[in-house]
Amino acid sequence: MKQILYLVATILLLSSFKESDSMVRDTVLEKNNPDNLDLSKHQLFIDTTGNSQFYQTYLTIQPDKDVISSLIDQIPSKCKLNQIENDSFPRLWISLKKLDNEFVIYHPCDGSTPSIAITENIMIFNNQLEPDVSIICSVERINRTIRFTLSSILEESELIIEPTTSNNIYKILYNAEEWFATTRERVAEFKIVVNHCPKVKMTEFSGFDKE
After folding, report:
1. Claim to verify: residue 143 and residue 47 sit in the same structural domain
2. Tens of pLDDT along 147-180?
3. Do 5 and 86 lie in a common domain?
4. Together in a domain, 15 and 105
5. Would the pLDDT of 103 be above 50?
6. pTM of the model
7. 211 lies in a domain?
């Protein structure tokens, strides 16, 4: 009996070492073309192709109209649903992270890359797991800076999009937080850190530069 327990304990210990070793290997990011990988398995890599299936996901982002409509119905009538007349700014903004002091896009294992979509009169926050919506009350554009006044379920707020000194990288200021983004049209200019999990959810990559 003792021999059996010892054998079981040994197998479990070796198994934990293998899992730990696998996790360590997975955190080593390498540039790769997804066409050269077995995408039926978990893959963590840097996509630099500019035109792979992972890049295409950002070109085809479409909000769930039923979900968005349901969220809009919950917003108090703090401002009218005015249609934006000035359409000279991009309508989809993809969030960026920094890796080794370089801006990249993160394609997470669970959910989607946070982004902001702007329609004629609403702003859709495509968070990693669940969307949120605000009504656009007003828009003001000063040079290349865009200022939105928003009304959501909980409060009225302000969102500012302003350019940085880096090409095609913008700073977004919202609810006392700031993050960086690029536009849908410029996605191909950035590398994508892909955490591809086709079967089992894995730990999200956490090796980005500290903000």
Report:
1. yes
2. 999 988 878 899 999 999 999 999 999 988 999 9
3. no
4. no
5. yes
6. 0.82
7. no
One domain, residues 58 and 153: yes
Task: Give the confidence band of 81 by pLDDT, cuts at 50, 70, 90.
Answer: low
Q: What is the pLDDT of residues 24-72, one digit of tens each?
A: 344 679 999 999 999 999 999 999 999 999 999 999 888 778 888 888 8
SS (H, E, C) the chain: CHHHHHHHHHHHHHHHHHHHHHHHHHCCCCECCHHHCCCCCCEEEEECCCCCHHHHHHHCCCCCHHHHHHHHHCCCCCCCCCCCCCCCCCCEEEEEEEECCEEEEEECCCCCCCEEEECCCEEEEECCCCEEEEEEEEEEEECCEEEEEEECCCCEEEEEEEECCCCCCEEEEECCEEEEEEEHHHHHHCCEEEEECCCCCCCCCCCCCCC
73 and 6, same structural domain? Answer: no
* Parent domain of 24: 1-29
The count of structural domains within the chain is 2
